[in-house]
Write a structure and sequence with these properties.
The structure is a single chain. The chain is mostly helical and 213 residues long. It folds into two domains: 88 residues, Helix-hairpin-Helix base-excision DNA repair enzymes (C-terminal) (Endonuclease Iii, domain 2); 107 residues, Orthogonal Bundle (Endonuclease III, domain 1). Helix content is 69%, strand content 0%. The chain has twelve helices and no strands. The radius of gyration is 17 Å and the shape is globular.
């Protein structure tokens, strides 16, 4: 029977393989982006996280590579919508609107520096960035090196439910439910001596066979 202990043992084994090295490299790239990336690069990552909401990560990655920060920052909304559609993005009209709206927060890293905790940063993002709720806000923060957050997408929910960490597959509907699930996930994170944002990469790998971002 799958248990949290079995999941812990599986992840500890993966840490000693090529998967562990790839996860480590990915985590270092997140930290580097948050610390050394340009404002354009950080804004591009924000747009990527908007694009991946209710969509596949690979589609968001492809769109980010194709468009780049310059298009996210400058392309007219209608043209951006058409481009997103051609790249296979879902809800392309809404997401173009969200990206254009986010431009007023171009210096997002500086804005977030006013907050002392990752919880405060996430609350601000979820309140102010159209198209980003707690999962997307956590995703962005993790991808700029803020690792003490969980990205509770369907893959993570599924595997944590399978191994008995979560009692339900139901997605969190609000801030309170999101934080409750994070609190249920945190003991596994602590037992592995790794932050939840890093643990997410292992969970994603176990569900999909991929390490993305």
């Amino acid at each position: 029977m799958p248990t949290p202990l079995k999941l812990k043992n599986i992840i500890n084994s993966l840490k000693k393989t090529d998967v562990g090295l790839r996860v480590k490299d990915r985590v270092e790239s997140f930290k580097a982006l948050g610390k050394y990336g340009t404002d354009e690069e950080v804004f591009s990552e924000l747009c990527f996280c908007i694009l991946t909401a209710n969509s596949r990560a690979r589609v968001g990655i492809a769109a980010q590579r194709e468009l780049g920060a310059a298009s996210f920052l400058n392309m007219e909304e209608g043209r951006l919508s058409r481009k997103l559609r051609s790249l296979g993005c879902r809800f392309y009209n809404l997401k173009a609107k969200y990206i254009v709206n986010a431009r007023k927060f171009y210096e997002i890293r500086e804005i977030l520096s006013d907050f002392s905790s990752v919880v405060e940063k996430r609350d601000w993002l979820a309140r102010n960035i159209l198209g980003m709720a707690y999962k997307e806000s956590s995703h962005f923060l993790r991808n700029i090196g803020e690792l003490d957050v969980a990205i509770l997408d369907v893959h993570v929910l599924r595997i944590l439910f399978k191994y008995g960490v979560f009692r339900s597959l139901e997605r969190p509907k609000n801030r309170k439910e999101y934080i409750t699930l994070e609190d249920e996930m945190r003991p596994l994170s602590l037992s592995l001596s790794m932050p939840m944002g890093e643990l997410d990469l292992y969970l994603w790998y176990l569900e999909t066979g991929e390490i993305l971002k």
